[in-house]
Amino acid sequence: MTDRKINIDSIHIDNARKMSQLTQKSRIPARPGQSMTTNLTQKWSSSPKVAHHVSVPALSTKTSTSSHNSCSNPQCDHCGSVIVPAPVATLPLTDAPSISIGNWEVFTTRKPILNSQDTEQLEKTLGFPIPEMTFGHNKVQVFKLSEDRSIEWSIDFNAIDALKMVRKNVDPSELLQVSYAQDWVNARQHRKGDEIMEIFRPFDWSYTSDYKGTITSEVPMTIDNSKAIPTSKLQTGSILFFNDMILFEDELGDNGISLLNIKIRVMKDCLLILQRLFLRVDNVIFRVYDTRVYIDFEKLEVIREFKRLEASYQEIRLQINVGTGDPRALMRDTAWVADHCKEVFKEREYVQLSG
Questions:
Q1: Which residues contact 286 (CB under 8 A, 6 or more apart)?
Q2: Is the distance from CB of 153 to CB of 216 less than 8 angstroms?
Q3: Where are the domains of the chain?
Q4: CA angle, 117 then 136 then 175, to 5°
């Protein structure tokens, strides 16, 4: 059997070459205003010229009348790729929700931690290093307005007033001690190289504070332990407003944690504020200082309850059973620790406001 010789006409070769060029050309994004089928005979070995000054068309401010599938983002004048605009930064973030019920107004503010300049100024004012994370602009405010809309009574919770009540200029022997507490205190001094720029006087490095809120009123609160917060009333009705925020937090040089946070919930006829200071010094002690403020909008009465709860580190560890859960997680759970600490002090205050 003789081999059959196959002849390929030159026109077939030329058509195949054009088809190959068209296929390769379709894989390259088209430049603005350039057709995909133009310049098919251009050699692919030649590199496109790069423009030194690229002008990107601005986004139109007019409302587009094209279909929802059209893209209004600009294209690169060189390669034709779509340019996706970068997101616009809106920091620093500010969260300030509020609610008004009758003559009562509630304001909350949440912002980032203090910057270095504010931190330095606050430390000069207080006379000791502030916690690592101090939310100095966070606050919860409640106002009772009179008929002429002036402030008749108010209470304010904020980190700066809480830190002002931290003990300072105290005998170091009266403070909580851990194995390297003094090393941690020394590390918090302001230094420039080996030169100590400023030495802080001894202070309560656990940031324990009896802060119960800042009240502004001509009518003082009186101690009345017979007044109890009506917990049954708080369990009924829907919550109209809620917020939860941290005022300050410090890990005490990896010796534990000192955390001050606050929660508020507002219902139709009352509100409740819970501020909790949670302190854990590893292998030493647990402390939970709770401040609850109950306000009845209808009866115009305010009850403030302050409690100190304490337990040694070993006492809490012994209450953790095998089936209770992760010991480390439980010792970070402020609610669980509070339920297992002993109450060492409790005081209630009361005030009746005018209508």
A1: 279, 280, 310, 311, 312, 313, 316, 331, 337, 341
A2: yes
A3: 98-352
A4: 95
